[in-house]
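Milestone M4 deliverable, item 7.
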Amino acid sequence: MSIPRGSQVQTRFSSFMRKGLLEVPSPTEKDWPKDDEDDYVFADVGQEVDSLPQPYRMINKMVNLLFDKCWEVIQERDALRDVEFNRTQPTTYPPLVESKLNKMPNCMAISQDYVFFGGAKGFSIYNLYNAKRIYIWEKLKVDVTSIWATDLGNEILIAPVDETGIARLFYFYKDGLFLIKAINEVNTLEPMTSENLEMDMNVCFRGDIKLSLPVHIMKIKPPKPVTGTTFKSPLEVFAKVEDYYGLGSGQNHFIKDSQWEQLAAIFLASHQKYLDKEWEEEPPSMATFHFLLPSRIITMPVEVKGPSGVACVLGIHWAGSHNFFFYSLHRTLKDKVDPEGVWPCAAPIAVSQLSCTCTFLVLACEDGVLTLWDLAEGFPLGVIALPKGCSCQSIHFLKYFLVHEGQNMYPESPLKSQMKCVVLCTDSSLYLVTAKGTQGPTISVLVERPVKHLDEAICAVAPVLALPGMLLIFGKNGSVQLMDVAKPQIICAFVLPRTYHLAVPWKPLFAVSVQHPCFLLRGDHPDEIESDDTKDIQNSVFYFNLEAYPLLENISRNHTIPETDVTENTAFAQVLPLEKRCESFLQKRFQKLEKKVKEQEHWTRLRRYSLLLQRENFRK
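Output delivered:
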């Protein structure tokens, strides 16, 4: 409905006014005076307003400006209402199961058929399907803020972290729960007995399980800042440096103290006006680490041997650091803690992410540049930059899928050197990054940055690994949608019951299963916030099973493409049988070993030549 703006329209036009005072005409027309054109003049109503004294003139302008702004907002809302009315809304589905909890959960995780809730004074374990509580462990004086669970086949490892930063490691079997160790606790280790557990049902503990305690391997500190070198010449560098690894990366360099002083003087002269301000104390440097499996990236000593499938290298970077360090886990406390390898980057590393198979690694720098690494094959998949002005917030790997006959499907055998991941930026834009061997990575936009309606911004995403190419998107307005990244388009949405909502929509509490196409979402009742006494209020966690919804039946049933269809397709002809792949792997490995031996020989010759030149200089 439009609003008349007659008063404003009148102020925009001039009026035809008569000079002097108006007189009441006589009832007889013949007595009316004749009109004279000189008696009339054009008068602008705006001039009368401008002639007003202050502050009335300013008040009038402010009222007109306010009216114009309000009119623009009304028009914008009308247009938005029309767009929303004409836009096709996705099909919405309610949750299937509501789990009533006695206490508000702070965190949760899913592994196998169990759900782990972390809350006040401990954590509890529930069945994923019937929402029945199995175990409860409450021996803490503080709350659990985060919980992590990983599947080991028939067993599960649980690692809750409390408010004081202490992490504890639990071993969970179908008929027993064991506390192994408090990782960083200063008190003595409590004995591993059944008295440390509280259960709401009779549980038979296995007495024949013997677990070895964790062993302290090493203590890693952030590297010291790069300082001036004591080397006097390049010959001395070659003579004293034992190997060529790390040369030029900041570890073995040839930069004098005078050069650092010159750079500092230039920086101070350029930014002195900003440096004079009072700055807050910088927070302590935070470290991000990843456990890496044996690969071609890190060359371990020949005498070091370990079981297959066990992490052997720790990859770590600190906040604000340009370097990504590799530390060997095959060491003792007496060994010198030096990195086995260093990857320098042009800008500080903001986010790093390792795939669940430990095959791919992505490093995102603060300037928006992404470096993609294939750890298994030992070469970079490429470097790609986000659009200008975008900075990476989080990276999420997708299980590599193919579009076969209009459906997203997983190949029965994994494809090497091919990866897909989604990148969520700080401006709430979402991108899909794809890399295939030596073809170079590509980037495509999934969701653009919101410009006008900030409540539709994305706050979190989570891949549904059980369904090919499916991604859960959580909006700041509390919406939860399922996207097909191959098209891309929104398939459906999920909503909570009307009596529930998300207490903090921009930070939802959810957990997505790795093995099953389902996820959990915590819902908050309005009474929980308004009431002071929340002891009698039931907290709820809602269970969404994607296989139970009609629109997703076709997606959940067929999600595997036969290997014959993959090899016959020309787009995937580069996939070789297992024998050919092993033969190619061995050939590349032998070539790499020969190249490494030659490089070491060249380095040895260079050192000898440097020593000879130094001796001749001393003689002179």
